[in-house]
């Protein structure tokens, strides 16, 4: 953390800024614990369930996972921050906590405005045509109907779903997984977010779309937003983010300029 | 360097104070009731677009499309008339049993489907909820809106049946409008209640059909409401008299039918109960749903 601050002061010297750095996300010693329903595991027989109801113990098939164990950092306007770490290191959980979708058990997360989480799992209405989904998505993000109508062609164009015929008027269930991921990304990226959280979404889609979406993320950033990017694709982190936070088992292992963190991370993963 | 220190007075500040200095808000905090209501109002276009989309989606796989909006209630009415009117002879000397039955059936169905879909309002839209931020009350309200649109279809069928069975058009018909609007407010509140319950208690979906079935029998939909007064002890009849569904159904029957058996003799009192339920459930349901706002989509 101290290293990083020193580093960014260097940056202010080389690129003199008139404005002070404005924090958009402050995470203060955040702990996230979530509960998983294990489903049919454990004793789920009717008798056991009845016994639990009588003795008032909670079901055995709920398990607590302490996914984030005390993370502290501050993100500023105009920054793009990559979150990396091995599977299960708490990256996605941290993003959800920043988005306000998972409560923090201890500590606090402060944000400017309402961060938007953009994940590949963000399903819209699969029975409806792509166009309808675009309009709905825009309205759900708080746009006016006129604005949503205006953005519609732009979003369809950006997503590229019409490259193989008129798919925009077909129900989304007929789309390939790549197509619907592209459309979802395009919808979410159509709005200027103060804080945009992207969970692996850039990894979907073909190479051309990836290039386009990386360009769009840079654009969002330049318009004074903060972008978080969770990805296993180190190349897209390298291309889009200048700062990277490396999480390991729910703790920050390293926080600093992307090049340095990635070097350490690659050494770590290769050494295993 | 002096400028840098001036420009960056934040360094060394504890995170909580830094956040307060720049007006950052705690993530996932519940907005105040007033600002929540304002937000919801700004999302009214989303609510109606979502309701229309749901309605269109529900018929998207059927060949006859939106015609089912009218066909479903019609078929329903035919089946129930066959069983309760012809086989079980529940008409009990009633002038117009078909109209009596369909009025009860359609009005009850409005609430029933709202509640049924309401239990899924949150749990069935987790993808949307986890991806985008909007006041979650938009979802149960959209469900009520969809069902209201369905009801309009049913009402056309109902008016057709009422006319075809020889009822005259009177000024009383106009009272159907406020009665249905009161019921809509009641439904919206109730849908928000079950939406919050259904978000946590996933078993509710299994229980709801039984609750609704019992409620339907307690609302005098399929048989003459006189049976309650005849066969139940006094206190039980009193409870049934305050059953909101029975009240809304009776208001619709009074509006449309010349001569219909009623459990509540006093019409002004019936209206008062209808208004009371609509206010209590509408406001109460909204408050209850709002209090759970930060929990939806978690877990």
From TrEMBL, chain B:
Matches recorded under InterPro entries: ABC2_TM, ABC2_TM_bact-type
One protein family per Pfam: ABC2_membrane
GO molecular function: ABC-type transporter activity
Cell compartments where the protein resides: Cell inner membrane; Cell membrane
Superkingdom, natural source: Bacteria
Cellular component, GO, one term: plasma membrane
Any one Gene Ontology BP term: lipopolysaccharide transport
Transmembrane regions: 67-88, 151-174, 180-198, 269-289
PROSITE patterns from the UniProt entry: ABC_TM2 (PS51012)
Ranges of residues in domain ABC transmembrane type-2: 64-292
Membrane protein topology class: Multi-pass membrane protein
Entry keywords, A to Z: Cell inner membrane, Cell membrane, Membrane, Transmembrane, Transmembrane helix, Transport
Family under the similarity heading: Belongs to the ABC-2 integral membrane protein family.
Protein name from the UniProt record: Transport permease protein
